[in-house]
Amino acid sequence: xxxxxxxxxxxxxxxxxxxxxxxxxxxxxxxxxxxxxxxxxxxxxxxxxxxxxxxxxxxxxxxxxxxxxxxxxxxxxxxxxxxxxxxxxxxx
Length: 92
Known about the structure:
Blueprint: H1 3-15, E1 19-24, E2 42-48, H2 57-67, E3 78-84, H3 86-91
Parallel strand pairs: 2-3
Antiparallel strand pairs: 1-2
């Protein structure tokens, strides 16, 4: 399973999001220091879930990082996360 597929599966199961965008930005960082050259080291993620209701931004990030334990920080060098509730996402 690819790193991207692993991220997708873990977030779909753990957060049941109404929207999940995973953008692999690894090509933008090829050859940069710290980039392992795997083609799956830098990701930008948008996840919209009702499970974030009443949670602070820090708590939302902790939830996602907990689900991705063993991926982010190990296989993934850089991970940019936007975690929103459906009402926040609708407001833009």
